[in-house]
Amino acid sequence: MTAFPNPTTLDNVNLMINVSSGDDVLVIMVDNLGREVYSKINIIKNAGEQVLHLYNLNSLMPGIYQVIASSKQSLVKRKLVIQ
């Protein structure tokens, strides 16, 4: 999984992730204290590389966040820096 732009000052971020067809992908963001600050379930219809969009991030304070994407087959974590 790749998060871009990273670091960001925008209110949205894109995630590029490789998924299986018909997989639901749960995306969660947590802050440095482990609090969940964002979550979204994405329903994927086609297998392969997909770009998922995280919107309305402008309410988050600048800092380092963990982006966690999970499906039936995988769990991926990446750091995201919001400036």
Explained architecture:
With 83 residues, the chain is mainly β. The chain is 0% helix and 58% strand. It has strands at residues 2-4, 13-19, 24-30, 36-43, 48-54, 63-70, 75-82. The chain has a four-stranded antiparallel beta sheet, with no helix packed on it. A hairpin with an 8-residue loop joins strand 1 (2-4) and strand 2 (13-19). The radius of gyration is 12 Å and the shape is globular. The two termini are 21 Å apart.
Name the shape in a single word: globular
What are the secondary-structure elements, in order, as H or E? EEEEEEE
Radius of gyration from the alpha-carbon trace, in angstroms: 12 Å
- Tally of structural domains: 1
CATH level 1 name? Mainly Beta
Structural class: mainly beta
CATH-defined topology: Immunoglobulin-like
Into which percent range does the helicity of residues fall?
A: under 10%
The CATH architecture is Sandwich
Overall mean confidence score, pLDDT: 91
Please, how many helices?
0
Q: Could you give the distance between the termini?
A: 21 Å
Strand portion, in percent? over 45%
Strand order of the largest sheet: 4-3-6-7
Question: Main beta sheet: strand number and arrangement?
Answer: 4 strands, antiparallel
**DSSP E strands, number:** 7
- Uncertain segments are none
